Inverse folding.
């Protein structure tokens, strides 16, 4: 079992989920409350990573963040090192790759809030920020949990983007799923079994947590 | 003085009205689907008309020609609908205080107490909306709408869950308070007795068009006679 890869995966998934919650809440609120044709384009862009092959996304990011582009060179000058093949680069890639897994549950949660409540808040002077923080977020708490858990798990299981953008550097970019690939490639099936079991266990545990919350809510409603 | 000329569509429904409400209390009367709620939502700024304008005390609130549209919370206008829409995660007191952000804590608390007393809901302050009856919820929704001291109060059958006696008593108290605080009110109803109960100006809406505007006794004479005839028929 590669504990270094395990710790790195947890660190990457936690950072990604935290950043995504900050980004996805206003983005989802904009998609639900906004008006205009450009919203369809914005929604398409946020959903794109869900249907795009991870290797394609990883390749584009590798080129964008590498020394071939002015953007990549600018970032490298700013940080003192290129983002590609670094942990921070993986965070950027993971945030983009897992974006739809954070945005979609929040859009569904915000959309389920009664529009009469939104109207009432607007009539009482609530601007977009207050509407989101005092009405949408508290009334769609479970969506927030779903968004956090799904983006965390999706990052833990990430392979294509990580391999393309980060390679396989122990302690820096080798995550648990990369370690699993290495173990299989080396015919170390016992270690691969452990790694796969841990990945499976984490997913089952986290999803059970989300659905148990949902069931509790359902039983309260049904009472 | 509330003045408006509106041309609006909602699905296949077309609303076209142009009038001015000068009296303190105006009733918009019409049967279901006549456009009462649509009109009130436009006046509140929740929906935008295709064409037209709305002005309150000569202050333009909506003007499609210039693209002006004051946001709902910036029109000094409150709307109380049939569905109370209380925020379920907040207590009654917090619901009433929601629109009072500009007041300090002491003034806010005092205002909440005053508003709850006005609607006869003082003892409900600590409760959650889920623990309220339909009538209690409507009282709280009214208190919440009045708390920020609007200049215009729009009522869309807001007391339908109260029994006749309680509703009349609350309406009397409300009308007195509105007069004292110089708040103009527009109440939409399909109940002819509600419309006739007050000596209000009445706008009669039919299929999205203005049918008549004037004193209740005159505008609703046909409706009144129809009810009287029904009561006489054995």
């Amino acid at each position: 079992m590669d504990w270094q890869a395990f710790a790195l995966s947890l660190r990457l998934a936690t950072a990604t989920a935290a950043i995504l919650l900050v980004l996805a809440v206003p983005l989802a609120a904009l998609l639900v409350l906004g008006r205009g044709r450009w919203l369809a384009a914005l929604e398409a862009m946020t959903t794109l990573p869900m249907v795009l092959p991870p290797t394609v996304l990883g390749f584009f990011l590798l080129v964008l963040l590498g020394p071939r582009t002015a953007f990549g060179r600018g970032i490298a000058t700013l940080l003192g090192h290129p983002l590609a093949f670094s942990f921070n680069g993986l965070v950027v890639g993971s945030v983009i790759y897992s974006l739809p897994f954070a945005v979609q549950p929040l859009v569904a949660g915000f959309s389920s809030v009664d529009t009469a409540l939104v109207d009432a808040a607007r009539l009482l002077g609530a601007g977009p920020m207050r509407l989101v923080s005092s009405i949408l977020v508290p009334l769609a708490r479970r969506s927030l949990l779903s968004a956090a858990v799904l983006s965390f798990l999706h990052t833990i299981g990430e392979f294509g983007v990580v391999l393309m953008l980060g390679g396989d550097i122990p302690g820096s970019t080798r995550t648990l799923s990369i370690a699993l690939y290495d173990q299989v490639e080396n015919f170390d099936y016992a270690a691969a079994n452990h790694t796969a079991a841990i990945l499976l266990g984490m997913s089952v545990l986290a999803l059970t947590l989300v659905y148990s919350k949902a069931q509790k809510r359902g039983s309260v409603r049904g009472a | 003085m509330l003045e408006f000329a509106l041309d609006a569509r909602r699905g296949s429904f077309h609303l076209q009205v142009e009038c001015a409400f000068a009296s303190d209390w105006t009733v918009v009367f019409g049967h279901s689907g006549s456009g009462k709620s649509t009109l009130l939502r436009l006046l509140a700024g929740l929906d935008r008309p295709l064409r037209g304008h709305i002005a309150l005390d000569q202050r333009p609130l909506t003007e499609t020609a210039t693209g002006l549209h004051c946001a709902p919370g910036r029109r000094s206008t409150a709307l109380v609908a049939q569905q109370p829409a209380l925020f379920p995660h907040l207590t009654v007191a917090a619901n009433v205080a929601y629109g009072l952000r500009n007041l300090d804590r002491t003034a806010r608390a005092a205002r909440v107490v005053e508003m709850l007393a006005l609607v006869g809901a003082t003892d409900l302050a600590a409760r959650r909306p889920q623990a309220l009856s339909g009538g209690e919820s409507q009282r709280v929704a009214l208190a919440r709408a009045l708390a920020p001291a609007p200049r215009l109060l729009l009522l869309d059958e807001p007391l339908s869950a109260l029994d006749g006696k309680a509703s009349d008593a609350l309406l009397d108290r409300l009308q007195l308070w509105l007069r004292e605080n110089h708040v103009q009110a527009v109440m939409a109803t399909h109940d002819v007795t509600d419309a006739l109960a007050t000596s209000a100006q009445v706008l009669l809406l039919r299929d999205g068009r203005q049918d008549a505007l004037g004193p209740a006794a005159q505008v609703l004479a046909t409706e009144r006679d129809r009810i009287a005839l029904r009561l006489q028929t054995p």
The interface with chain B takes residues 114, 116-117, 119-127, 134-135, 138-139 of chain A (CB under 8 Å). The first helix of chain A runs from residue 3 to 33.
